[in-house]
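Q: Give me the 3D complex with acetyl coenzyme *A.
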Amino acid sequence: LKFVCLSNDGIDQHMIWLVGLKNIFARQLPNMPKEYIVRLVMDRFGEIAFCAITADEQVKGYGTRLMNHLKQHARDEDGLTHFLTYADNNAVGYFIKQGFTKEIHLEKDRWHGYIKDYDGGILMECRIDPKLPYTD
Ligand code: ACO
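A: Here is the predicted complex, encoded as structure tokens.
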């Protein structure tokens, strides 16, 4: 028995397994709309749900390095093209410096309903450059 972590990264064998997985979900969870299952299994955006640096280490560049590592990993290991985050109002400046914008270019039906929104935050998007080396 073997367990593997998979994402929609364009590799043929992974796509075959993901489609198989999608079919299992569709059969075993018949009340779930099929489009919903396809989206959750295949989607290529990542949500940054929580992001924080311990208080006495803030504004020393760690948040930037963390985000750069995350971009590199998400792109190279998971094939992601975009991040979405609900940024706290007081962290919007940080996210702008990490390349996030308040304009959302991803089609709404790919993320609407999947990302929890809350008062005091704003949805932001970051496109991950397909080639840029984000880390040394
Ligand atoms: N508002 C505006 N600008 C900021 C903020 C902020 N809150 N925090 C950092 N910056 C700026 C820095 O001044 C720096 O600017 P520079 O490049 O011109 O010098 C740049 O952003 C990068 O700063 P880092 O030192 O890399 O950021 P840091 O290590 O402090 O991490 C973080 C940023 C994660 C926001 C951290 O300050 C933190 O944990 N804050 C408290 C928790 C928080 O607000 N988290 C985000 C909530 S939203 C969410 O989780 C999805």
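A quick observation: Residues 12-28 form the longest helix (17 residues).
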